[in-house]
Design brief:
Radius of gyration: 15 Å
Strand order of the largest sheet: 1-2
Distance between the termini: 31 Å
Number of strands: 2
Structural class: alpha+beta
Low-confidence stretches: none
Strand content: 15-25%
Length: 72
């Protein structure tokens, strides 16, 4: 993900560091579950702005999620 964000941002703005707003925008733009079962999407994300900035993101595919049906 770091490589994708760095490359994407560098192409657009010439910077290689992503800010929190870039991560939030990426997460929101990729929340929709795609038709392709191998395409990555954002299943969930959260961030906190307390003493330190914390950002968590859960990336998955439909194929990976389908394996959960076999878990007891």
């Amino acid at each position: 993900m770091n490589n994708y964000l760095a490359t994407s941002r560098q192409k657009r703005l010439g910077k290689t560091k992503a800010c929190l707003q870039d991560l939030i925008n990426y997460a929101k733009a990729n929340e929709i579950i795609p038709d392709d079962e191998h395409k990555v999407f954002v299943a969930g994300y959260q961030y906190e702005l307390d003493d330190e900035v914390e950002f968590r993101i859960f990336l998955t595919t439909k194929k990976l999620l389908s394996f959960t049906q076999y878990v007891i």
